[in-house]
């Protein structure tokens, strides 16, 4: 996830986020669950653009001032899912384990994006080293 966040700069095509997540996931034996996407954050919490965490061809570009989430869900197995009656809870069909993490980022004029969900600058620096 951090590698995908670190490529987020003004002008980066949205597809690069998903392409990066999928490449890393697959190289470690996992796959992204396609139903779980990131999103823009604005006056409403879930706003465009949709951030796909899998290989895609979305050429829309990140712009300075955007706030968005990067929140891939990685799964074992084939990645098929079921959605529970509450319309929100999902699970893998084959019982494979899954893991999801989320960060909210701000696209700066220069440099790496600011990770808004890490509270202290020291922690941000340490996290980027991982």
The CATH topology is given as Creatine Amidinohydrolase
SS content category: alpha+beta
Q: From N to C, what is the helix and strand string?
A: HHEEEEEEEEEEH
The fraction of residues in strands falls at 15-25%
Rg over CA atoms, rounded to whole Å, is 15 Å
Estimate the mean pLDDT confidence: 91
Counting DSSP E segments of at least 2 residues, the number of strands comes to 10
**CATH hierarchy: architecture:** Alpha-Beta Complex
Question: Which overall shape is indicated by the principal axes computed on the Cα atoms?
Answer: globular
Portion of residues in helices? 10-25%
- Low-pLDDT stretches are none
Main β-sheet description:
3 strands, antiparallel
CATH level 1 name = Alpha Beta
> How far apart are the termini?
11 Å
Total of DSSP H or I helical runs spanning 4+ residues: 3
Number of domains: 1
Looking at CATH, the homologous superfamily is Creatinase/methionine aminopeptidase superfamily
Instruction: Describe the strand arrangement of the main beta sheet, using strand numbers.
Output: 1-5-8
Write the layout of secondary structure elements.
Layout: H1 2-6, H2 15-27, E1 31-32, E2 38-40, E3 47-51, E4 67-70, E5 73-75, E6 81-83, E7 90-92, E8 98-100, E9 103-106, E10 114-115, H3 121-129
Antiparallel strand pairs: 1-5, 2-3, 4-9, 5-8, 6-7, 9-10
């Amino acid at each position: 996830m951090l590698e995908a966040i670190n490529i987020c700069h003004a002008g980066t095509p949205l597809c690069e986020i998903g392409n990066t997540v999928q490449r890393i996931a697959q190289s470690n034996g996992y796959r992204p669950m396609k139903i779980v996407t990131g999103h823009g954050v604005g006056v409403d919490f879930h706003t465009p653009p949709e951030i796909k965490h899998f290989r895609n061809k979305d050429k829309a570009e990140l712009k300075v001032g955007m706030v968005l989430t990067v929140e891939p869900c990685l799964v074992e197995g084939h990645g098929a899912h079921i959605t529970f009656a509450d319309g929100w809870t999902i699970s893998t069909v084959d019982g494979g384990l899954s893991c999801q993490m989320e960060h909210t980022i701000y696209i700066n004029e220069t440099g790496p994006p600011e990770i808004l969900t890490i509270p202290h600058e020291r922690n941000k620096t340490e996290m980027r080293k991982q």
